[in-house]
């Protein structure tokens, strides 16, 4: 049941702190190391892995795009991310040293299932990241890491996405731990930060009223653009996807550095542009570049909606609307930066009179190719 909320989506957004904590539960030991016992691929085999390929669709694909940054940074193993629906049709290069990760909330998505079958036929090991116990994708995989988000009823994925991210971080950190990279200290520090992240998600949820108000004020707009860099880029794609599926608006996500290569031509007076700003502490060069992007689009009349860390004062003068998120390690920022975008899309959809839990033309689980 909806537990007092008007929509399942609102309930599921609110459940995210618990979902994130549940996905971490029992996977970090007292010494601060990861114990992923259910990943039944031997540590010897994991040490041999020379390439990771992630396959997924929609929101789960966006989780995969973020996972790439984490996997390559913490393990130095090359990682590709591919839409499951495209994967097997291009004769991908796979062998027994390729670890394929299939991400799926439902565990029944046909595109993802066909991609993992193809990978196993080529001798690759498949690890599923899945939210639905006993569903087809984990049954057909070599191993599974369950996300413990609980049942997700609303068609638009919210808590499943955050827990997919957590599971991806766990896999990346675990691979780093097993293989012993030079990032050992950072890995231990991130595991500590991850264990506290659910409180940060909770904190974001408490500050969402201005985001709702802003969303309502944009109900008659036709287009919203989303910009990000580094892990903020997939967050921008996810913000745009949520808005398309729920508000039926034209929404696009771009890598902010791409702006000058074409999309900036779209900027016009009063166009709402949401910008996800990287931490000024971590990749500070990127931070400075995105601040200039915000200046550029604002100079062309766009209405800038800026999602930035608490304490990041450099962005404030160029933000028509400033949405604050807690400071986190760079790679973990999507866990807090996505939440305002979910709330934004949900509220805009409601303001436009749309059916939030059951958007037109969509099904919760897509069992056809
Ligand atoms: C978007 C959404 C879809 C799913 C996609 C994959 O909010 O829900 O894009 O993420 O259909 O579904 P699963 O994760 O069940 O494989």
Automatic annotation (TrEMBL):
Look up the domain of life of the source. Answer: Bacteria
Active-site residues, Swiss-Prot/TrEMBL? 364
Which keywords has UniProt assigned to this entry? Aminotransferase, Cytoplasm, Glutamine amidotransferase, Repeat, Transferase
Q: What is its main location?
A: cytoplasm
Q: Where is the SIS domain?
A: 42-181, 214-359
| Source species of the chain | Streptomyces glomeratus
Task: Provide the function of this protein.
Answer: Catalyzes the first step in hexosamine metabolism, converting fructose-6P into glucosamine-6P using glutamine as a nitrogen source.
- Please state what the protein is called: Glutamine--fructose-6-phosphate aminotransferase [isomerizing]
Q: How does it assemble?
A: Homodimer.
Q: Might you give the EC number(s) for this enzyme?
A: 2.6.1.16
Where does this protein reside within or beyond the cell? Cytoplasm
Q: Top-down, what is the taxonomic lineage of the species of origin? A: Bacteria, Bacillati, Actinomycetota, Actinomycetes, Kitasatosporales
Q: What chemistry does it catalyse, as a reaction equation? A: D-fructose 6-phosphate + L-glutamine = D-glucosamine 6-phosphate + L-glutamate
């Amino acid at each position: 049941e909806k537990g007092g909320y008007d929509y399942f989506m609102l309930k599921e957004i609110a459940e995210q702190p618990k979902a994130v904590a549940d996905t971490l539960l029992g996977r970090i030991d007292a010494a601060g190391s990861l114990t992923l016992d259910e990943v039944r691929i031997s540590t010897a085999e994991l040490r041999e892995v020379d390439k990771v390929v992630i396959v997924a669709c929609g929101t789960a694909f966006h989780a995969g795009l973020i996972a790439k940054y984490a996997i390559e940074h913490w393990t130095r193993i090359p990682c590709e991310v591919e839409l499951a629906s495209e994967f097997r049709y291009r004769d991908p290069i796979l062998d027994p040293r390729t670890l394929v990760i299939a991400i799926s909330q439902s565990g029944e998505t046909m595109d993802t299932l066909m991609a993992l079958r193809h990978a196993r036929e080529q001798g690759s090991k498949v690890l599923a990241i899945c939210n639905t116990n006993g569903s087809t994708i984990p049954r057909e995989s070599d191993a599974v890491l369950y996300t413990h988000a609980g049942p997700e009823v609303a068609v638009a994925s919210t808590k499943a996405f955050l827990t997919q991210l957590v599971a991806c971080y766990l896999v990346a950190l675990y691979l780093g731990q097993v293989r012993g990279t030079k990032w050992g200290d950072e890995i231990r520090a991130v595991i500590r930060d991850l264990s506290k992240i659910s409180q940060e998600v909770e904190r974001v949820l408490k500050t969402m009223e201005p985001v709702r108000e802003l969303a309502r004020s944009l109900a008659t707009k036709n287009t919203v653009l989303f910009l990000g860099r580094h892990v903020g880029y997939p967050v921008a794609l996810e913000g745009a996807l949520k808005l398309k599926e729920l508000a039926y608006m034209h929404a696009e996500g771009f890598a902010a550095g791409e702006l000058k290569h074409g999309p900036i031509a779209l900027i016009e007076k009063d166009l709402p542009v949401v910008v996800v700003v990287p931490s000024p502490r971590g990749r500070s060069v990127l931070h400075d570049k995105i601040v200039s992007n915000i200046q550029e689009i604002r100079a062309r009349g766009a209405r800038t909606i800026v999602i930035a860390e608490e304490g990041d004062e450099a962005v404030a003068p160029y933000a028509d609307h400033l949405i604050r998120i807690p400071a986190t390690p760079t790679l973990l920022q999507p866990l807090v930066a996505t939440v305002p975008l979910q709330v934004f899309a949900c509220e805009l959809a409601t303001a436009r009179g749309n059916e939030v839990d059951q958007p037109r033309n969509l099904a919760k689980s897509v069992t056809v190719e």
